[in-house]
Design a protein that fits this description.
Two copies of one chain form a homodimer. By secondary structure, the first copy, chain A, is an alpha/beta fold. Chain A folds into two domains: about 260 residues, Rossmann fold (3-Layer(aba) Sandwich), CATH 3.40.50.1820; about 100 residues, Rna Polymerase Sigma Factor, Chain: A (Orthogonal Bundle), CATH 1.10.1740. Helix content of chain A is about 35%, strand content about 15%.
């Protein structure tokens, strides 16, 4: 365990038995949500920070679940004593998103009406549904108003959705490498993943539980995802055109280093993630559009009253900086100019999980300012 | 048939019975090459232009193979009477590349030693091998020296290879949307295609001939390719976030227009292309490096003595403009500065097949200049 970590934490969960109404009109009951907390809620309950994870993350954002863990939570460099999200000051909460497979109800959960996993009988869930469930959890934890909601990528979408759907519920928002809707090119990448999973014969229309899982399809889908997490510059730096095998280039099976990387990460992912959850969460990402229900992107963003910080990275082509420009322009025109910092990085979209120095400094300074307000 | 086309053309072929030595040290025998010609060879045999096709193209570059054909050859807008490659002036030849499946020997051809298709017994072929076979064909056609070699994408690689391997064989080179080696990110996209085909249970280590073909895998692989042929801007223009189905977004199977496009084009491709050919040609693309055998990229490019025109397109991220910058810089430092035109286009890599106006004008002017030299 690293010294300045949030220490040993336990993933907890709460189950709501009452009906949970989804944006689609469908109902889930019961709904379980897994979460972790770091630090303590202060007396006037004004120091709660909600961290929203990205596509395939979990509630385990910081610290260690066991003293033997080799790695801490996925954003441990940002959350802990003295860190950007300082657990000496803030009560930090992170919950696993609805539809995922890390303890929160999703397609691999048991459908009480059949006693078997939901599989495709699971309803399509949206970012708004995810946020609604987070709000329910926070109420249970005694948090009425958040000091901040923060997240990167799909976590940033949730932060934006908080600001628009519950404008009074959070004092500040931090939206990193994200946007109010993804680009058609991002949908195209998700399409590759969808086809790869669905065409794997083991997928069997989603009813693979207890049998062989659609491992190859999920791995290929994840490989396509990995391309979007990097950048052209990152590919050059990380791999170049170095060969990854001892075979001669004239061997049909010879590979480049970049292929080994994709294969390794693609298949490693299949050991930890459920294929149907992946499909449902990609779907939620695709159909997320901040403007739904508000008429336009402008009308939606007008609702934001929280103090907002937007962080983007120069080489991110999954959530290109022009998407952040758009939000800045609209919010500024609405008289609620956000803070915006573009960080120069070769890491592409992954930068929010890798570039901690400047990112942490910018977030610390922003939170300090909000606190003093 | 359009009026100003090259008219009715027949794809011809020639078979070489003697041993054809490959760069890998392996041997093919016999080797057949399919080709088309447009216009006539002049008396002093000085007007021959070789057009090299891209990844999945064919020898059918212009005109119509039958009066009933709905579409002409793949570069008909550029090749024909009065066009950039003016068939009133030039004797234009286009041959199907080695390893492909449009009449030239490839993995789906019959291996004379077994009487069955080669499948994976086919040797790995390289761009240098493709060019060597073109040279053999030209000799057979009575062409000793080319007036020009031109091609886009993988066709441009062949043009560069001509210039470096046979510096005296062509008076001029036109290299479009191409480079002397692909980027690691391009290899990553090819990796997705490779895995998608190889993990399709119908692929059966390549021995699927006469049985069901690995259609799903090939379609998914091609979808990944299609992402690289477009650009972020093209995705916005062509599809935006428009829905492509009547279902509600809350339907698990609802799709966006971009998904319909990828699916349609992915599966359409499987009707015309052999999966093993795709793997072999992707391999040739990956392992192509102009510098092989010359020590360095600089040493290879130093060998170019032909008058060279490089065309690239602003939004091409498969062959990014910085790759053309690199060639220009090296050739200029070697005292053989090329002409270089960067065309502003939203079409991405596909631009060389779609943007004819400026491209045609630039090529016409270049060829005129070379002729007057």
């Amino acid at each position: 365990m690293k010294e300045n970590s949030a220490g040993l934490v336990r993933t907890q969960s709460v189950t709501f038995k009452e009906e949970f109404f989804l944006q689609s009109g469908r109902i889930l009951s019961p709904v379980t949500v897994a979460y972790e907390t770091y630090g303590s809620l202060n007396e006037d309950k004004s120091n709660a920070v909600l961290i929203c994870h990205a596509l395939t993350g979990s509630a385990h954002a910081a610290g260690y679940n066991s003293p033997d863990d080799e790695k801490p939570g996925w954003w441990d460099d940002m959350i802990g004593p003295g860190k950007a999200f300082d657990t000496d000051k803030y009560f930090v909460i992170c919950s696993n998103m609805l539809g995922s497979c890390y303890g929160t109800t999703g397609p691999s959960s048991v459908d009480p009406s059949t006693g078997r996993p939901y599989a495709l009988r699971f309803p399509v869930v949206t970012v708004k549904d995810m946020v609604k469930l987070q709000k329910k959890l926070l109420a249970r934890l005694g948090v009425e108003k958040l000091f901040c909601v923060a997240g990167g990528s799909m976590g940033g979408m949730q932060a934006l959705e908080w600001g628009v759907t519950y404008p009074d519920a959070a004092e500040s928002l931090i939206v990193i490498s994200s946007a109010g809707r993804i680009t058609p090119m991002a949908i195209a990448f998700n399409t590759i993943a969808r086809f790869a999973v669905k065409k794997d014969p083991n997928w069997m229309d989603g009813d693979y539980y207890g049998k062989a899982s659609p491992r190859d399809g999920l791995a290929i889908g994840r490989m396509a995802g990995h391309i979007t997490y990097l950048s052209d510059a990152a590919f050059h730096k990380k791999f170049g055109r170095r060969l990854g095998s001892q075979e001669s280039i004239y061997d049909f099976n010879s590979v480049y280093e970049v292929e080994n990387y994709l294969r390794y990460n693609g298949y490693k992912f299949t050991e930890r993630f459920d294929a149907n959850s992946y499909l449902y969460i990609l779907k939620a990402m695709d159909i997320f559009d901040l403007s739904y229900g508000f008429g336009s992107y402008e009308e939606a963003l007008k609702r934001l009253s929280a103090k907002t910080l937007l962080i983007d990275f120069t080489t991110d082509f999954l959530f290109p900086p022009y998407q952040t420009d758009e939000i800045v322009d609209i919010m500024t025109a609405c008289g609620n100019p956000p803070e915006r910092v573009t960080i120069d990085s070769d890491y592409g979209h992954d930068a929010f999980l890798l570039e901690f120095g400047e990112q942490a400094a910018v977030i610390s300074a922003f939170l300090r300012k909000v606190r003093k307000k």
